[in-house]
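Worked example 3. Consider a protein that binds nicotinamide-adenine-dinucleotide.
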Amino acid sequence: MIFKGNAVSVQMLEAGIAELNFDLQGESVNKFDSTTVSELGEAITALENTEGLKGVLATSGKGVFIVGADISEFVPLFELDPAATGEHLTKNNSNLNRLEDLGVPVVVAINGFALGGGLEFCLACDFRIASATAKVGLPEAKLGLIPGWGGTVRLPRLAGADVAIEWIASGKDQKAEAALKAGVVDGVVAPEALRDAALNVLQQCIDGKLDYATRRAQKKAPLQLNTIESMMAFETSKAFVAAQAGANYPAPVIAVKCMQKAAGMVRDEALEVEKEGFIKVASTDAAKALVGLFLSDQVIAKNAKGWEKKADKKIAQAAVLGAGIMGGGIAYQSALKGTPIKMKDIAQAGLDLGMSEANKLLSKQVNRGRMTPDKMGQILSAIDPTLSYESFDSVDMVVEAVVENPKVKHAVLADVEKHVSDDTIIASNTSTISITHLAEAMQRPENFCGMHFFNPVHAMPLVEVIRGEKTSDKAVARTVAYANAMGKKAIVVNDCPGFLVNRVLFPYFAGFAGLVRDGADFQKVDKVMEKWGWPMGPAYLLDVVGIDTGSHAEHVMAEGFPDRMAKSYKTAADVMFENERYGQKNGKGFYSYEKDKRGKPKKVATQEAYDLIAPVAADSKDFDNEEIIARMMIPMATEMARCLEENIVGSAAEADMALIYGIGFPPFRGGIFRWIDSIGIEKFVELSDKYKHLGKLYEATDAQREMAAAGKKYYA
Ligand code: NAD
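Given these inputs, the predicted complex is written out as C-alpha cells:
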C-alpha cells in the first residue's frame, strides 16, 4: 500500500502497475466530497513519487464508480465569495491535471454510475473501460450548474462538440453502450470481465501497442474545428439549447458559451473559462433553488425508505375499488411495477373502461419499442377486473377510489372491511375528505389511512400518505412501502380537509377568483402565472382538473376552513359550473377545446366565456404582473405556512417537494418555502399586509411575523 486514506487508496499490483481505488468509508456510494478531493491529491503525489511506476488502474470499491460531487457541500460553497468558489474548483482541477500529466498511462474501470465529477475524473484518464451496466453523464445542468472539473473542456475534445453539447445541456445519464457509440468510453464489457479488460488495455499502453500519448495530447490541445465548423456546432445549438431549457434555466446556454469561448484554447486556459462560467451560474437563483431541491428530494427519499423499513410485509396482492380515472390509473401503475392488483367496480362498463385505459398506455410503450408485447400481456394479466369481493381475504392492501362522496365512501369502506382479513390495510384516495371522518365508518380505523394519488396516476410522481387520528404506524408504513413499490414519491402528512396539496391549491384558486371578480382577464392571469413558471395557469388548470370536480372540492374545503375558504360572492368558476362548462372533459370551460392534428385537446379562447363571466366581474382592468403574482401566490404560501405550523407537514423540504411533485410548482424556484426565503420573509409579510383587505387568506400568520422580526428563514 503506498497510500491509504478514508476514501482513496493506492497499492502496487505487479510489474509496476498501481491500483488507485475509491472507497469512501461509512458511505454506500463514492462521491467527491472534500475528503476525497484532498486524498486524491495525496494519492497522486504518492504515484508521482513511486519509482518504477509503469501504469495506473483506477477502480471503485463500491457498486458505483463515483456518483458526483457531494451536493450537500454546495450550499456553504454558494455562500462563499467567487474567489473561494474558484479555489474549490482549482483544487480538484489540479488533481485531475496532475493525473493527466503523469508520466505513465492511466486506465479507469467504470463499474457503475460515473456522474458529474465522477465522469470528469474518468475523462482525465487515458482510456475508459465500462461495465455493460455502468451509466455515465454530466448532470450538472439539472442542478442549474455546469461541469466545473473539466467536463466542458475534455468532453468536446474527446468526443466532439456535438456530443458534448448534447450531454452537458441535457444532463442526461447515458448507458455504457451509448457512451461507447459517442466515443466517451473506449470499451464495454460484461461486469465480471471489467477488471481484466481494463488491466489488459493498460498493459497494451505500457507495451506501446496503444498510443495513449496522442490521446492525451488531443485532450490538452485546442478543439480541432475551423471557424465555420465551430460556428455550426456552437451558434446553431445555442438557440436550440436555450429554447429547450427555457429562460428560467440559464446553465445549459452558459455551458455552450464556455465551450465555444474555450474552443481555440489549450487545456489550462480552457479550464479558466470553465471556472468563470461555473462561478457565474453558481450565483444564479436557479442554481441555488435546484441544488436545494436536490437536497430536499433526498430528505423525502430517506423518510420514505425509513417507513418502508418499518413495514411488516411487502405487498404481494393489492386491490383497488372503483375503476374510474383514478382506480384505472392505480391498477395500471401497480401492475406495471410488479404488484398484482384486483380492480373492483360496481359496473362492468367501469371495468371495461379501466382495462382499456391500461391497454392504451401499454400499447403506446409497445409501439415505441419500449416494451415487448409479451411483457404487455404479463402486465395486463396482473390486473384482475372483478365485480365481486371474491378472494379479497388474501389482499394485503386495498385502495378505495370510488366517487368523492362521503356517504358512498362510508358505505364502501364499511363493506370492504367485512371481506378482507383483520390484517389488511385499507387506504382512501379521497382528494379532500378528512381521513378521520371517513374512519368513523370503520371497525378497524387503525388499519386505515389516506393514499392520495394525483391525476394522471402514471405521470404524477407524488402520493400523499395521510395519517388520520386513529391510523397506526403499521398502516402508514405499509402504504408508504406500496407507494415506493409503485415508483412514487410518498410524503406522509397529517389529516385535515384537502390534506396538504389541495389545502393550499384552493386558496390559490381563490386568489384567481378574486382577480377575475375585480376585472382581470383570465387569459392574462394564465399567461403571467405560466411565465412565473407554473406548467399551466389557474384557468387552464381548473379546466384540466374539471370545473365540476373543483367546485365539489371547493365546498368540502369551505366547510373545513369556513373562516377563510367560504366564499361571499359568485365566482367565474361557479358560472362555468352552472352552464355545464366542466372544462376539458366536455370540451368547454374557461377555454373551448378542439382536437389538434394528433387528436390532443387544444385550448382556444372564445368570446362566449367572457360574456358568461361579465355579470360576475367588474369592468375590465389591467393588473400589472407583480400584482397578479402576489394575489395568486400569497394565499397559497400563507396556507402552506399554516400547514407547517399545524404540523400537517413535517418540514419545509417535504412541503416544497409535495408541490413540485404534486402540481408542478416551478422547480427552478426550489419550492414555495424557498421562494419565500428568496424574497425574504420580511418582504413577504409586507406584501401580505398590502393585500390584507382581500380577506383572511392574505393575512400572514403570527409565526411568520415573528420570523420576520427575528430575521429567520424557512431553510436555516
Ligand atoms: P370516477 O368517477 O372516474 O370513478 C369512480 C368509479 O367508482 C366509477 O367507475 C364507479 O363505477 C365506481 N364506483 C362507484 N361506487 C362504487 C362502489 N360502491 N364500489 C366500487 N366501485 C364504485 O372518479 P375518479 O375521478 O377516479 O375519482 C375517484 C376518487 O379519486 C375520488 O375520491 C376522487 O376525489 C379521487 N381523486 C380524483 C382525482 C382526479 O383528478 N380525478 C385526483 C385525485 C383523487
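Take a moment to read the result before moving on. The first helix runs from residue 34 to 48. The pocket of nicotinamide-adenine-dinucleotide is lined by residues 321-327, 344-347, 350, 401-404, 408, 412, 429-431, 453-455 (CB under 6 Å).
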